[in-house]
Task: inverse folding
């Protein structure tokens, strides 16, 4: 991964090279803290050891019974689905991957109606084993398998923590069970069983994903100028401190669209604490040049844009044409157009004083994805250290869970009373 922060300087919010140089001493201290946390496999920091501690052979052995699958359906939510989805949606495979990471009844029914469940591996993923959406979807999928005459215990494996409902289910029905590594929050778990089991079933090179991640891990250093990950973490933090409260994350590759969704959870759930944080706005190039770019260039000076691209990609020629006014496009290629628009958008943001950062990998392949995923995780941890945040927890998401559980009769929760007592002002 390469991080180009040249366009992050001189815009508005204003960030100078001197300010970054001054911040570099804090980056050195942050690196020391991170290195110590990694050395002791501390909660959260353990995620940055996964390039070394993940066991691809163990994963491949666990999913070997499902090698004949035509599809793999993951039932999970948040970090228990987005990492695997990032890899699945970025890479080609003969084995289709589907994800049930919401409880939208129409979507769930449509997805299940379209699946041959007799040839689908079902991967139920929940670290806690208590997530209502995941458990509800599992019960629906199991019923659908029963209705299809499929022995669900032969097509299902779980990825979960050491105890809880899924662990009990696996033990009761002797299901293959993969362990969620200890000390790794869901949004940091892609480089583990949680993110790699689907990739293994799809035949992707899991070792190459981990190798790319390991390369980026090797480049963690005591200066932001020596580490692409820390350069990104420190620069986004410094811009946030100066008013960039939004980070528009804009990959120029359809294959990286889900990666932006994964990044959004990582960034929001890790850094949105104590009134701080930076809102990740998911965007896609070139498409969002025809929508959100207007806001980025001419709206409030409260954001930065992160532009992500591979420097190599398969291409497709645009045929020559004698159509009036289109001749300049004929004979080009779609990749040439996409790259020209990437660079034009980057320059247009800079011309409008909108700070922007360029992240590049060679190709969207297993190694490049490993570099990006680890790089963003390490950048996030660096930002969290600089901001003195509790990067690895997410207490604010619990209120809504208690309210919903109360509304469903799952216990007495004052949050549910607050829902029932909502002030209403309906306009119809
Ligand atoms: O793996 P679990 O325990 O089902 O959690 C799923 C997701 O829900 C959260 O815990 C938030 O509720 C995320 O941090 C996590 O990725």
Result:
């Amino acid at each position: 991964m390469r991080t180009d922060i040249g366009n992050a300087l001189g815009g508005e919010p204003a960030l100078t090279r001197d300010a970054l140089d001054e911040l570099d001493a804090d980056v050195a201290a942050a690196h020391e803290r991170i290195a110590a946390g990694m050395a002791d496999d501390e909660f959260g920091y353990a995620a940055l050891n996964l390039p070394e501690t993940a066991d691809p052979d163990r994963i491949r052995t666990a999913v070997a019974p499902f090698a004949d699958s035509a599809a793999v359906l993951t039932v999970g939510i948040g970090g228990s689905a987005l990492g695997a989805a990032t890899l699945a949606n970025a890479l080609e495979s003969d084995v289709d991957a589907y994800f049930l990471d919401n409880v939208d009844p129409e979507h769930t029914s449509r997805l299940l109606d379209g699946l041959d469940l007799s040839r689908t591996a079902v991967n139920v993923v929940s670290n806690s084993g208590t997530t209502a959406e995941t458990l509800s979807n599992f019960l629906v999928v199991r019923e659908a398998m029963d209705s299809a005459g499929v022995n669900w215990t032969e097509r299902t494996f779980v990825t979960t923590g050491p105890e809880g409902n899924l662990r009990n289910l696996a033990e009761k029905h002797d299901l293959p069970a993969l362990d969620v590594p200890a000390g790794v929050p869901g949004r940091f778990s892609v480089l583990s069983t949680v993110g790699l089991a689907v990739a293994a079933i799809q035949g992707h090179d899991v070792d190459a994903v981990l190798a790319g991640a390991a390369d980026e891990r090797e480049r963690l250093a005591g200066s932001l100028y020596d580490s692409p990950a820390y350069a990104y973490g420190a620069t986004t933090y410094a811009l946030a401190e100066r008013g960039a409260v939004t980070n528009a994350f804009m990959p120029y590759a359809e294959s990286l669209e889900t990666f932006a969704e994964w990044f959004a959870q990582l960034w929001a759930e890790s850094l949105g604490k104590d009134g701080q944080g930076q809102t990740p706005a998911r965007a896609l190039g070139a498409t969002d040049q025809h929508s959100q770019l207007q806001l980025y260039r001419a709206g409030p000076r409260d954001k930065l844009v992160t532009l992500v691209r591979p420097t190599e990609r398969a291409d497709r020629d645009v045929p020559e044409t004698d159509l009036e006014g289109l001749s300049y496009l004929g004979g080009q290629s779609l990749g040439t157009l996409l790259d020209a628009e990437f660079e034009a958008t980057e320059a247009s943001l800079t011309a409008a004083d909108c700070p922007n950062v360029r992240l590049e990998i060679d190709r969207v392949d297993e190694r490049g994805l490993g570099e990006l995923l680890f790089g963003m995780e390490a950048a996030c941890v660096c930002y969290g250290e600089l901001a003195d945040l509790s990067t690895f927890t997410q207490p604010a998401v619990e209120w809504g869970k208690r309210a919903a559980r109360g509304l469903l009769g799952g216990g007495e929760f004052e949050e549910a009373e607050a829902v029932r007592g909502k002030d209403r002002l309906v306009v119809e």
